[in-house]
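Subject: Sanity check before I submit

Could someone independently write out the structure tokens for this chain? I want to compare against mine line by line before I put it in a report. The sequence has 619 residues.
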Amino acid sequence: MGRLRQKGQAGAAKAYVTRSAAIRKLQCSLADFRRLCILKGIFPREPKSRKRANKGSSAPTTFYYSKDIAYLAHEPVLKKLREHKAFAKKLSRALGRGEWSSAKSLEGNKPVYRLDHIIKERYPTFIDALRDIDDALCMIFLFASLPSNPRIPPSLIENCSRLAAEWQLYIMRSQSLRKAFLSIKGVYYQAEVMDQTITWLVPYQFTQNIPIDVDVRVMLTFLELYQTLLGFVFFKLYTDVGLVYPPPLDTKRDESAAGVGAYILQEASQKAEKPAVPKVKVVEVEGRQVSGKDVYKTIKTLASSTFKADDMDVDSPVVENKSGDIDEEFVVQPSKSDAELASSLPTLLSLKALPQSINTALFAPYTFWLSRETSRPVFEFLVRSFGGRIGWPTSSGGGSPIDESDDSITHVIIDRPVVEQHSENEEQRERRLKRKYVQPQWVVDSINAGKILLEAPYAQGETLPPHLSPFGEYEGAYDPAALTNEEAVAAEDESEIEGEDEEIEDAEPQNAEALQTVATAAVEDSVALRAAELAAEAAGIDPSTFEKEVAKSRRKSKKVPSNGVDEAEADMNKMMMSNKQKKLYEKVKHSQNKRNLERSKLEEKKRTLDKQKRKSQTT
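---
Independent answer below. Compare away.
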């Protein structure tokens, strides 16, 4: 007889545990349980059968893996949280009794936990940590832009501002920035650090208000983890490029609102350390000092006396130096993989096929001046990341390396309409004519294009070209650059269709209607086409006009695909799905249709604009 299985002791009931049962097992509060789950990366799970996992109950609840909860039970942070709970009780009791000395001593011995071991557990290698800092950077830059708030301590905002400045300094120093995009939410940046693509969002410098319905405690827990993670990552990045971490802060520059310029990058002092001379181990044997060299000589002597000369390996003879040291002569053996190595060497054709390197010194030959209405932190970061020099007025902060009257300024980034200069002397006029006044979008579009674009479409007061996202959001997204060939074909077709319409309009109205009807029917098969040719000939229609009308009907039929078979197959597949899978499938199809509709609208709008542009050019 097999072993009896008790209900709730095996299967899903044992593999899963509810949130309330997990809190009872860990003996902590709900807030502490949430904090532990965030720090350790543990999240709720969805069992296949909620009724079985909940031991027969169908009540709505949240499930976790039992192994995850057992893993949390041995967490050192949980022990510190319990100690903090006991500390809070003792402190409140001492304050209630008026025991100020004991309260002060308790405050000095307040339990504090560290997250270093959690970072090492969650990210075994440095590349793992580097891949996961996108959300951390977004959170850091968000809190760095927040004003003073009773719900957030000022020291936390200051630390986030420091981490954000350290990241920007590293990106500017290593010239790792690749793309940027000015969106409604903020500025998206994308950098490439150690072959890892990192994308983050920086909000604009507006007054940020924290909504009341946002649980700041959850965000602060994430921020606590992210600060520790970025501290590890930044230390590694700075030390790899030979910089001191953390970079020292110049208080005078910081007080003058110098931004990232308040931090000073210092080279790490690389002292040439002398290689340690290995000590020869000496042992005393029977009152005589014996070294490792003596032992080696003895072994070689025994080997030479035991084996004959013919049995010894002649390829590695033993040679004795003048100093008495025994050396083994190294004999170079021919490699068997020389032919394979020669075939794997890169050739000129293979080198040409490699992708071209990104021009990280795009703005190196230029010097920029920021107008007072532009965002200084954004464009200082962009220009300096690509090797350019930039200056700004004192109203935007201190620490500008150049003055507005500097003759080396080549571009002025300005974002206001053109105003006539009434009081302008000759020197100011010459200076203005030497410089190129561009709108801020020119900087970002030049970075995304990888080359310096023409300044005329971005000149002051001009209507800007569309600012497109450089990121591949999803497969099949609207890409105007990819429509050039299709647009050329569509323009050619439209011109042909317009010419054909004019020919049709020149014919008699009855013949034109008959021609369209017959040509539409002739698209179906060859028999109908022959019959249509005879009917067109009997009606007195020109053969060339008839052929053009048939080609036009065929193009129209190609634009309307017949998806009857695909739709029927999709319906059959949908019948085999569960209700949950059907809902998920409908959501996916709805989002796909929405994206396709948006793309078709943009394409149609672009075709209309191009058509109007061509007509205006011909007239």
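---
OP: Matches mine. For the report I'm noting this point. The chain has a mean pLDDT of 78.
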